[in-house]
Request: fold
Amino acid sequence: MAAQTTDVRDTTTFLRVAIVLQTTALFFQAVTAGMLLSSSLGALLHDVGSRVMYGASMLYVLAAILAWRPGGGSPRPILHATGFLALASVQVILGIAHVPSLHVPLGILMFGLSLLALAQVAARRSGRSWVRVGTGA
Reply:
C-alpha cells in the first residue's frame, strides 16, 4: 500500500493567501469608511466589504486548521485566527449598532494585527525571524 503524503508548502500557501485576502479586505474597509463621508456609494461598498472581510476571517480560520493538521505543529495560528474571527464579529456588531467610537479604533487594531500575521507568515516562509525574543540585546 502506498503512503500518501501531503505537501506542507501547499497548506502554508493557502494560509498566506487567506491572510493577504483578509488584510486587503481590511484595507478596502478603511478606504470605504472614508468614502462614507463623501458619497452614498461609500455606504454600499463598506457594507459589501464588511461581508468580504468577515468571510476572509472565516477562511483564515480554515487555512490555519489546514496548515496545522498535516505537520502536527503548534496550534497557535488557529488560536490567532479564531481570536481574529471573534474581533471581526465584534466589529460587525459595532458597525450595525453605529458605534463609531469603538468601531473605528477596533478596525485600526484589526488591520495592524492582520499586517503582523502577514509579516510572521512571510518571515516563516523566508526562514528569517524578524522578532527576537529573549536575546538580551
Summary: The helical segments are 8-35, 40-71, 76-96, 100-126.
